[in-house]
Amino acid sequence: MNKDITLVILAAGMGSRFGGLKQIEPMGPNDEFIIDYSVYDAIKAGFTKIVFLIKEENYQVFKETIGARVEPHIKVEYCFQKNDNLPIGYTLPETRVKPLGTAHAILCCRDKVNEPFMMINADDFYGRDAYIKGAEFLRNIKNEKPYKYGMVAYLVKNTITENGSVKRGVCEVVNNKLTKITESSVERVNGKIIATPLSGDTPFEVAEDDTVSMNMLLFTPSIFNYIEEKFPKFLDENKNNLEKCEYLIPDILFESIKEKYATVDVLKTTATWYGVTYKEDKDSVKEAIGNLVTSGEYKNNLWEEK
Predict the structure, then answer these.
(1) Mean of pLDDT over the chain
(2) Nearest-5° angle of CA 63, CA 131, CA 177?
(3) C-beta atoms surrounding 103 within 10 Å
(4) How far are the Cα atoms of 193, 196, 197 from residue 201, in angstroms, in the given order?
């Protein structure tokens, strides 16, 4: 009997740079969304449950669109990222609308995830091989200290758009283990790839084949306790920036490695990543998906029964 493994899809982002709710922008030949292909590939790889992490006000539109299509094929749960989900005694400014970041997003799924899980972004097309590698890792993961987590790695040159900067976790890897991850804004400038750390540290150049995280990460439920434990420290350190600060999972991963709470295996994939960060990216992603349909990787009508 296969082990239960869950895919957590982070879809609470505002989509501000794209100019709308990009998670439900049609991309496939029958108006499939990128999320459709993520769920389809996850099912093919053996995942047994999907958890959508969304904003509560978007529940109905998700339920009536992507939910209606995928619920006949796999167990589905919904979680909401709310800015009042904080440690006791802490509050955020009432004027803050933006979600509190990816670590907070994962924590908001705690009540619905009791098995090994992989998290992904809703607006990234990761490719089936990445799900196969992730599922294999999760089926063999053991819940013992130091905890063993994983990351599916991509080459930075394959994750850049010509239309502006993108957020990437620039990785340092030793013997297939992640040693450091620097969440950065990455952009090609004058023929070079430049990473500008979101922390405000000095920008640096990265090589074409350097490894980056696309937030395709693998965990046991032990990560929830660690995120919760570090949350008050994060809020205290950002008490003067509560309007904009983000509690990010790459920072949590790096801290867990430093404290020997966990190790993070780096899984290399042959899959090609496609993403829609800007409106101008849409046509190239639709073309790439169309080519995969033509080649037989996906059905023309993804959820057609026959």
Answers:
(1) 89
(2) 125
(3) 22
(4) 16, 7, 6
